[in-house]
Design brief:
There is one protein chain. The protein is mostly helical. It is built from seven helices and two strands, in the order ααααββααα. Helices cover about 70% and strands about 0% of the residues. The chain has a two-stranded antiparallel ribbon with strand order 1-2.
Length: about 240
């Protein structure tokens, strides 16, 4: 197994990939928090969201590549993050010529990631400290369950022939919010030891890391349960995307 890559020790192509991953991750975090802070559906929300989508997909895929180079199972998390943000984007802005086949392929990908990931969580239970590569078994079970829920959501969307109204909006928001949570948690908690001690304010770090998850729960409560779109700039709902 290759030692874990760091900017301080990597050279050549691994260094370039790691630097690219770090840079796109910072941009994704900035754009994601901007999209959370501004009015939903407004110009800044759309612009921040687009930047977040592109940089987060790049961050997830490079994370998968780095994990593969290191021989780590975290490659699955990187792929899932890219999938989650991509499907969040296509929920509100389907790709030209997109068809039912692509939806099915993405659903199969999500189910496959969940099926492959769950055994690693059980393996972690038997490891010292109940973790693998610093990732606790509880967090692995949590992420694996999210993968399964995302795949189930894909199945329900395909079976219904598409989504309309608040269901469509909720799918977009929860996937974007959770994608941001993956980024914030990985950066602020996963890399906490690299933050200089003078500015390593642990309560603030936890707030920054967990705030996207809190916002995710808030939007699910407001949109799915309360059906409240007050203050949001929404366009006239388009017809559900049907099988091509």
């Amino acid at each position: 197994m290759t030692d874990r890559l760091t900017l301080a020790t990597a050279t050549g192509l691994p260094f370039l990939v790691l630097a690219f991953h770090f840079g796109t991750g910072l941009i994704a975090l900035t754009a994601g928090f901007l999209a959370i802070a501004v009015r939903k559906g407004g110009e800044w929300h759309r612009r921040g969201g687009m930047v977040f989508v592109y940089t987060m997909i790049a961050t997830g895929l490079t994370a998968a590549g780095i994990a593969a180079y290191e021989g780590s199972a975290n490659v699955l998390g990187g792929i899932f993050t890219a999938y989650l943000v991509f499907t969040a984007y296509t929920t509100v802005k389907p790709l030209p010529g997109a068809s039912r086949r692509m939806d099915i392929a993405l659903m199969v990908l999500a189910f496959t990631l969940a099926a492959v990931s769950y055994p690693f969580a059980f393996i972690a239970l038997g490891r010292p400290g109940r973790q693998i590569n610093g990732v606790p078994a509880a967090m692995m079970f949590f992420m694996d369950t999210i993968m399964l829920l995302a795949a189930t959501g894909d199945f329900r969307m395909i079976r219904a022939g598409g989504l309309l109204g608040t269901r469509r909006l909720a799918r977009h928001l929860w996937r974007m919010s959770f994608g941001l949570f993956v980024a914030s948690g990985s950066f602020f908690l996963g890399q906490m030891k690299f933050i200089p001690r003078p500015i390593r304010i642990v309560p603030l770090i936890f707030v920054l890391a967990l705030s996207p998850l809190v916002m995710h729960l808030y939007w699910m409560w407001r949109i799915r349960l309360k059906q409240n779109l007050r203050g949001m700039m929404t366009t006239k709902p388009t017809e559900a995307r049907r099988a091509a």
